[in-house]
Amino acid sequence: MVIKRRVKAKARRKLIKKSKPGKTARPKKAVKRPASKLAKKQTKKAVELNFEKVGEVTHYFPHVKAAAVMVLKGGISVGDRIYIKGHTTDFKEKVNSIQLDLVSIQAGKKGQEIGLLVKSRVRIGDSVYRI
After folding, report:
1. Contacts of 79 (CB under 8 A, 6+ apart)
2. In this structure, are residues 97 and 69 in contact, taking their beta carbons and an 8 Å threshold?
3. Which of 122, 128, 121, 123 lies closest to 70, judged by CA?
4. Which terminus of the chain, N or C, has less C-beta within 10 A?
5. Looking at residue 122, what is its pLDDT?
């Protein structure tokens, strides 16, 4: 009987040490956002859904700031506005030059792996959308 009480007392002390004094576990309250922030978030999602995915980044060349892009659907031509989105990448730009096997071309077609000059670093697997 005495041994059981000591064990229970030790267990109680361990529980007291683990829990922070004065803090009790309460469920978090739902935060209500202003309507303007909700509207902005919804419109941003809607705009992203309207983009057409035309390619995917397969490689990045940092010295020349160029990306190798595999064209998956449709095509990319000089003058198009593109949106590159990835885990850490998120920017829009206008296509100024396209190369295929070190030769400048006006448009890249489905199935081709083209080179694009980009203004910022991109990563393998980033998606390329036409705006």
Report:
1. 94, 95
2. no
3. 128
4. N
5. 97
- Cβ atoms of 89 and 123 within 8 Å: the answer is yes
Phi and psi at residue 112, to the nearest 5°: -90, 150
- The C-alpha atoms of residue 52 and residue 14 are separated, in whole angstroms, by 58
Domain ranges of the chain: 51-130
8 A C-beta contact, residue 98 and residue 107? yes
pLDDT in tens, 60-87: 999 999 999 999 999 999 999 999 999 9
CATH of domain 51-130: 2.40.30.10
Could you tell me the two tokens for 74? 């449709």
Q: Which residues pair with 77 in a beta bridge?
A: 107
Contact 67, 116 (CB under 8 A): yes
Structure tokens at 81: 């506005």
Give Rg (Cα) of the chain. 27
pTM of the entire structure? 0.62
